[in-house]
Amino acid sequence: VTVLNLGDDAILAAAQSGQVDLVFTPTEYAGASVPNMKLVLMDSIDSFCVNMPQEPEHDENGMLVGNNVTSDPAIRTALNIGIDRKTIIENALGGFGKPTMNWAEDLPWANSDLKESDNRVDEAVKILEAAGWKDTDGDGIREKNGVKAEFVINGRANDLQRYNTAVALAQDAKKLGINIIAKSTPWSEARKIARNIPTVWAFGDYTPQMFYNYYHSSQVGVNVIHNPAIYRNPTVDAHIDRALAAVTDEEMLKEFRAAQWDGVTGPKVDVPYLWIATVQVPYFVNDQLDLGRLRVGERGQGMGILITLDQWQWKK
């Protein structure tokens, strides 16, 4: 097996010319006709989200962290309930995904209480208005204390689906009076500055250890990718600590679910991450290549399908 790292612009040409037998394809190309190849969709545990820095902008050891817009809970809550995830998925991912408000929604430690309806525009607008975010100059963008409801989201330059998600989210957020500026940025840069400028993440893991990495306050600043939301909630920390110290699966699952929402506090109301979609992963596959029984895998920038590599065989 030879694995090639192709840019998005080269993928369709490589498939149509017969250079590859299997290729992870951007959703824009999924409807294309490719000789001797079929489109295969793999369900995944990976979800796209945008980190929402919880603290106002400030200097930390010479680095700018925090965000003066996303640090306002009204902005985060309004986006969470006000955006239309289904429309965003259609526009950004060609419909290859399902709306989500939670990480690892289909895994056993997910808390189903985080699920609720979105596109509640009127309710979102009332939250913004009550918090002082008003469009006083008529330009369609709300402001508060001289600060515009405007911020940048970096989409990963070598992952068109993530950039397209930032673009589609920006378009949808306009109805709330929130101006999001989507930028295509190299991942090496986007992740370094994510605690200041939000970026689109693809989170997915079979272990809830990942929840510790991205929600526990002790992980703020540990490295450039851990807890980019600068999320600090001592109650959530305590739930996570108890989950990691649990001696039974039942206790562990109970505490991880409580870390997401225990009826009083947690990510459900704090919204450190704006969850958008659990993605499906499209591939063009040679008609003669049998991939075996596909499992729900990690997206892994297209590498997730290798999970069944031991089952692959050529049809005779």
Major sheet size, sense and barrel closure = 5 strands, antiparallel
**Please, how many helices?**
10
Strand content: 15-25%
Radius of gyration, CA atoms, in whole angstroms: 20 Å
> pLDDT below 50 for ≥5 consecutive residues: which ranges?
none
* Count of distinct strands: 13
Shape: globular
Explained architecture:
The chain has 316 residues and is α+β, with helices and mostly antiparallel strands. The chain has ten helices and 13 strands. The chain has helices spanning 8-16, 73-82, 85-93, 121-130, 160-173, 187-190, 209-215, 234-245, 249-260, 267-270, and strands spanning 22-24, 37-51, 58-60, 63-65, 97-99, 143-144, 147-148, 150-156, 179-185, 200-203, 273-286, 289-290, 313-314. Strands 1, 2, 5, 10 and 11 form a five-stranded antiparallel β-sheet that branches. A hairpin with a 2-residue loop joins β6 (143-144) and β7. The protein is globular and about 65 Å long. The model has no long low-confidence stretch (mean pLDDT 93).
What tags apply to this protein structure?
five-stranded antiparallel beta sheet, 10 helices, 316 residues, globular, alpha+beta, two-stranded antiparallel ribbon
Q: What layout of secondary structure does this protein have?
A:
Elements: H1 8-16, E1 22-24, E2 37-51, E3 58-60, E4 63-65, H2 73-82, H3 85-93, E5 97-99, H4 121-130, E6 143-144, E7 147-148, E8 150-156, H5 160-173, E9 179-185, H6 187-190, E10 200-203, H7 209-215, H8 234-245, H9 249-260, H10 267-270, E11 273-286, E12 289-290, E13 313-314
Helix pairs in contact: 2-4, 3-5, 7-8, 8-9
Quick summary of this structure?
The chain is of the alpha+beta class. The protein has helices spanning about 10-15, 75-80, 85-95, 120-130, 160-175, 185-190, 210-215, 235-245, 250-260, 265-270; strands at about 20-25, 35-50, 60, 65, 95-100, 145, 145-150, 150-155, 180-185, 200-205, 275-285, 290, 315. It is about 30% helix and about 20% strand.
